[in-house]
Amino acid sequence: MKLVRYGNPGHEKPGMLDTEGRLRDLSAAVTDIDAAVLSRHGLRQLAALDPERLPLVEGSPRYGTPVAQVGKMICVGLNYADHAAESGAKVPEQPVLFMKATSAIIGPNDDVILPRGSVKADWEVELGIVIGDVARDVSVDDALNHVAGYTVVNDLSEREFQLEHGGQWVKGKSCDTFGPIGPWLATADEVANPQDLALWLEVNGHRYQDASTRTMVFGVAHLVSYISRYMTLLPGDVISSGTPAGVGLGLKPPTYLRAGDVIELGVEGLGQQRQQVLAHPADR
User: Fold this and answer.
1) Which residues pair with 277 in a beta bridge?
2) Which terminus of the chain has a smaller tally of CB atoms within 10 A, N or C?
3) pLDDT tens digits for 60-72?
4) Which pairs from 84-93 meet CB under 8 Å and 24+ separation?
């Protein structure tokens, strides 16, 4: 299944894409795409529905993030060897973890607003892993049983905040609008192998990132197992699994986002995002 949330911010409704990619309303079946729906039991109930019998949604409504009320957003740093190299870092021996504030989360095609005074805003296409069942110190072999599905994440970063303002990376990762997620959540049964997905990102039509999840340092099952050792993963939590080479920081000279830029990105089978970059109101 491909699950979505559509409508104006704060008023999204649950939906599902049918076999022809048409949007169907799920409001009569569930109140939202939330923790109860993302559990194995909840997804089995949705899978029993006939999409063709659900109301067809006309027009082209806005898509919100496909997961309601994300409890925590855990990100993985330096999880592609080529990105570690362009960042001047060693390939880590264990996953590098940091958090992105959930207040950064927006829909896949919402505007990205640069923080006040930003000069080093950067892009990062990533595979998003959505937890479906509670994962607490799970084994690698069992880890994927706790995954509801996958989505597209743009882990936007303000590199000056991240690297020059002291402390941990979270300051550069948590600016408002710096967490676009979606357009849909593809349930795990839709993704035959999460370690064989193409992912790409373009700015103003120029392709900067073009890679595959095959080249991850730590795969999805390893990440879920590893993270669950240190914290309990709950239904609706999102893991952003790292980005390949091609970020602005690694270019020579470094290239960063400016007001007026258009970011487009996608992951194979998980859809595409498009964001217009706007200046902070104080900088306009």
Assistant:
1) 112
2) C
3) 999 999 999 999 9
4) 84/217, 85/245, 86/245, 86/246, 86/247, 86/249, 86/250, 87/247, 87/249, 87/250, 91/217, 92/217
DSSP reduced 3-state for 120: coil
Q: Are 269 and 190 in contact (CB under 8 A)?
A: yes
Amino acid 81: pLDDT: 87
Rounded mean pLDDT, 32-58? 95
Mean pLDDT of 13-34: 97
The alpha-carbon radius of gyration of the chain (Å, integer) is: 18
How far apart (Å, rounded) are the C-alpha atoms in residues 217 and 208?
20
Backbone angles phi and psi of 24, in degrees to 5? -120, 140
Tell me the residue type at 119: V
Report whether 127 contacts 199 (CB < 8 A): yes
Question: What is the C-alpha separation between 207 and 200, in angstroms, rounded?
Answer: 7
Q: Which residue, among 65, 67, 55, has the nearest Cα to 24 in the 3D structure?
A: 55
- CA pair distance 181, 183, nearest whole angstrom: 7
Q: Which tokens belong to 79?
A: 């999880």
Pairwise CA distance, residues 160 & 171, whole Å: 9
pLDDT of residue 221 exceeding 90: yes
Of 77-91, 250-264, 267-281, minimum mean pLDDT range: 77-91
Tell me if the pTM is above 0.70.
yes
Nearest to 232 by CA among 145, 166, 134: 134
pLDDT single digits (tens) 134-183: 999 999 999 999 999 999 999 999 999 999 998 889 999 999 999 999 99
Between CA 212 and CA 226 the distance in angstroms is 22
Q: From its phi and psi, is residue 87 left (phi > 0), alpha (psi between -120 and 50) or beta?
A: alpha
- Residue 53 has phi, psi (to 5 degrees) of -95, -5
